[in-house]
Amino acid sequence: MSLLNLFTVYLLLAGAAAVASAALAVRTKEDFYAAVLLGITGLSVAALIGLLGYTFLAVFHVLVYVGATVMFVIFGVVLVGRGAGSERRMALPAAITSLLVVGAVYTLLRQTTVSRVSVDLAEAAVELFEGSATALVFLALTLASLVIAGLSIASGRGGER
Amino acid sequence: MGEILAVVSAVLFGLGTYGALTSRSAVKVLISLEIMFNGAVLAALMLTSSTVPGTGFQLILFSVALGSVEVGVLVSILILLYRRMRTVDVYQVPGLEVVE
């Protein structure tokens, strides 16, 4: 099997895993399983990002998104317990809307020419710290405010009825 | 390559939309929105890969970090909602409940 074919096989496997886990996450009744399946979707998307050539972003996605975000969701689910099921009356309108969204996004993306990229990390770091320094400061402040907001809300200072 | 990524991105976006519209549980709505976020990340990387890969790299780096912040705030709000209402059913939240 040539290298190109093997690459396509990896791409197909990662894509299939992402779609299957996302479909199961939407369909499952248990919120906990949905959160775990969201983690698998995140890992699959990270694999696709890596295959596209953004290896650093793929690692970042696994560490920050799957490692932190999904874990946060899982612990949130553990705290609030069982979910509330789904609304059957919304199934048909939601399915039609989703199909329209899929069609629109696919039409937008199918004409895009995609090529494997090679990002120079040293150059990207210089650009990030010099060109987007202000944005980085705001991001750090946002992360700090998240910690403060999370702690104050979860500790119950919002007041119970 | 582009065809596969376009299909995956569009389907993730569609599945997220379906889940967000049909779920009663606020946690499932959040998870569905995160599935849509994954589709959007793939789409953004596809769109920038052939023209400005460096910009796409920075954009997604910030997006993933801000996505984490957003999830943190939302999970905190869900926990507060559960403490006050004893439920995470969005149809029972005052102001969002179904009027027959």
TrEMBL record, chain A:
Keyword Ligase on this protein? no
Q: Which InterPro entries match?
A: NADH_UbQ/plastoQ_OxRdtase_su6, Nuo/plastoQ_OxRdtase_6_NuoJ
Against Pfam families, the record matches this protein to:
Oxidored_q3
Q: Which organism is it from?
A: Thermofilum pendens
The UniProt transmembrane annotation reads 6-25, 32-52, 58-79, 91-109, 129-154
Q: Which UniProt keywords apply?
A: Membrane, Transmembrane, Transmembrane helix
Molecular function (GO) terms listed? NADH dehydrogenase (ubiquinone) activity
Know the name of this protein? NADH-quinone oxidoreductase subunit J
